[in-house]
Amino acid sequence: MLNRGIRAKVVGTGMYVPDRVVTNEDLAGLMDTSDEWIQQRTGIKERRYIEPGQMPADLAQAACEQALEAAGLEVGDLDFILLATLSSQHEFPGTSFFLHEQLDAGHVPCLDLRAQCSGFLYALNFADGLIQSGKSKRVMVVGCEVQSTGIDRTTEGRDVAVIFGDGAGAVILEANEVESDSAGILDVKLHSEGKHARRLWIEAPSSGHMPCRLTREMIDEKRHFPYMDGRHVFKHAVTRMPEVLKESLANASIKIDDVDLFLFHQANLRINEYVAQKLEIAPDRTFSNIERFGNCSAASIPMLLAEAERNGILAPGKIVTLTAFGSGFTWGSAVLRW
Ligand code: UT7
C-alpha cells in the first residue's frame, strides 16, 4: 500500500435498479424451475430487469447522480470515472463512454474495467492508487450490469438465468489527509487465476473466431450465453473469499472482531453463509440484498454500500469489509473505515 499521507475516502454513494420486478414464479413460467428450488439454493426471491429501451448507461447514470448529490459535487469536480462491468452496452466503446455523454462530463477521463463479479473491487483498487499517488483528487467508481438480455431463459440455461439481475451502484472517492483514525480505504487485496477462465464465461462473440466473431452456428449452439460450472465456482468461492478477507484485514492491521459490517458479493446467499460460518461471523454483522435483486455482478457491492448507508447500518467510524469472487477467476477484499 502506498503511504503518502493521503487516504481515499467515500464521500457519496448511489444505487439504481429498474422498476420491473421478476419473481421466481415468473421464471418458473419460462423454464423448469421453482420458487422453492431458487430460494433454497440461492436465497433469491426476485430480481429486476430493464424495460425495453433502457440501457446500461441509464442505470449507471441514475446511480451516479445520486452519488454526486450525496457528495455535494458536480460531475466536473471528478478527475476520473471508472466503470466495472461484464455486460458492456456495446462491444466498444464501453458503457462508461455512454454514461459520460449522459452525465455531460466534459473531458473527464473514463474507462470500463473488466473483472466480472470482482470488478468493483478492482476498480476501487485503481481509484485508491490514483488518489494515493496524487494523480487524482476525486474518482467515481461505478458498477453497472444488464444481464437480463444476455441469459438463456429456457430450462437449458436455468442454473445461470435464475441468479442474475440488473442494477447499478456508484461511490465517489475523495483524497483525505491521513490521521490515525481517519476514514477511507485501509487496504485492497486482489487475486486472479486464469486457468479457470472457461468455468464461467461467455465464449461468443470472440475476436479470435474465424471467419467472424459471431456466426449463426454459434448462436444455434448457444455459445453467446453464459456457461457456468456452478459447483466448481461455488467450491472456489467459499475457499478464496475467507482467505482474501483475512489477508486484507492483516494488511490493514484490523482484527476480525473489530469489523462492524461484512459485505459480500451477492452471488448466492449460501456462499456467503458458508464464508460467514467459516470465519465465525454472526448474521447481524452482515447485510444482504440478494433476495430482492439477485446477483448483479460488479454492481452488487456498490448497491450494498448505498443501501447500507441509507438505512444507517453504515455510519461514520464503522469498519466495513467488501469481499467478492467471480469469473476469471478473480477475487478480492477491501477494508474501509467509513
Ligand atoms: O457471481 C459470480 C460467481 N457465481 C457464483 O458464485 C455461482 C456459484 N454457484 C452456485 O451458486 C450454484 O452452483 C448454483 C445456484 C448455480 C446451482 O446450485 P447447485 O446446488 O450447485 O446445483 P447443481 O448445479 O449441482 O445442480 C443440482 C440439480 C441438477 O439436477 P440433477 O442433475 O441433480 O437432476 C440441476 O440440473 O439442480 C438442477 N438445477 C435446477 N433445478 C431447478 C440447476 N439449476 C436449476 C434451477 N431450477 N434453476
Structure description:
With 338 residues, the protein is of the alpha/beta class. The chain folds into 2 domains: 6-177, Thiolase/Chalcone synthase (Peroxisomal Thiolase, Chain A, domain 1), CATH 3.40.47; 184-337, 3-Layer(aba) Sandwich (Peroxisomal Thiolase, Chain A, domain 1). It has helices spanning 24-28, 35-42, 56-71, 95-103, 119-132, 158-161, 216-220, 230-251, 269-278, 290-293, 300-310; strands spanning 6-16, 20-23, 46-49, 80-84, 110-113, 138-145, 167-177, 184-192, 200-201, 227-228, 261-264, 319-326, 330-337. The protein has a 5-stranded mixed beta sheet, sandwiched between helices. It has a 4-stranded mixed beta sheet with strand order 8-13-12-11, sandwiched between helices. Helix 4 (95-103) links the parallel strand 4 (80-84) and strand 5. Helix 3 crosses helix 4 (95-103) and helix 8 (230-251) packs across helix 9. It starts with 5 loop residues before the first strand and ends with a strand. The mean pLDDT is 97. Bound molecules: oxa(dethia)-CoA (UT7).
